[in-house]
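dumping this here before i forget
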Amino acid sequence: MAGVGMAAAAATSPCRRWGCAAVSFGFHRGLCTLLVRKPEKAPRWFPACRQKASVSFLSRPDLPKLAYKRLKGKSPGIIFLPGYISNMTGTKALAIEEFCKSLGHAYIRFDYSGVGQSEGNLQESTVGKWRKDVLSIIDDLAEGPQILVGSSLGGWLMLHAAIARPQKVVALIGIAAAVDGLVTEFNQLPVEVQKEIEMKGVWSMPSKYNEEGVYHIQHSFIKEAEHHCLLHSPIPVNCPIRLLHCMKDDVVSWHKSIQIADRVVSTDVDVILRKHGDHRMKEKADIHLLVCTIDDLIDRLSTVVT
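structure:
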């Protein structure tokens, strides 16, 4: 797989500005992939992930208002795209915010329509509508070039945004990116089960990450999502892409990131695998990996600009 750097042998290298070491994997120069924390104390920013600013709302003609929080700062800015029914108050979203504050870089986190504090009805949400939400954030709030960080389903939407806004989206970071995920999983069900779900109109998909133990997904959501699948052909995204995944992810297999890397036309692609951790990738070591990957891309893009 030409142009794809994967976790292999390690060499220690510094992670800029964080006073900690990093282990660099694969063929891509300078990629900070696995941080080795200093033993004397944890980074002071990590437990202080709190945002005191009030929520703002993006008004859009004939579309639900989107709740968001924004830090103004240097370019490139960072935008966090949550996973399915996840909101902007999660561990990763807040940790990235604290990291961007420390660097003075712009940052936006937001809720999709029908989720969190945004307007809209979740039962009427679709991948297409959430794609429009992401583009609204990019077009109406973000200033200058942006790095998109997409978690799970957000990793699917970030690719759509990069295709639609290639001049503004300058890099992507996928966290257990679930590209085509729900459609693929539905199509793997026995035909009789698919027919039963179609008749009922709702798919009760088991999930250990939901308090009820299941996600109730409208059958219409799956059918609409089929129109946004990407992995059936080359994906026309040319910017740098970093795909982070845990090998013990039991929701989206790490092989999905390999498949994405193979499908995108960009040659600047790294797949970074962690042997431990789960789909959410929100433990301390996961967050260290994430912020160091963001840091590396900022540094790389700054070098390209100069």
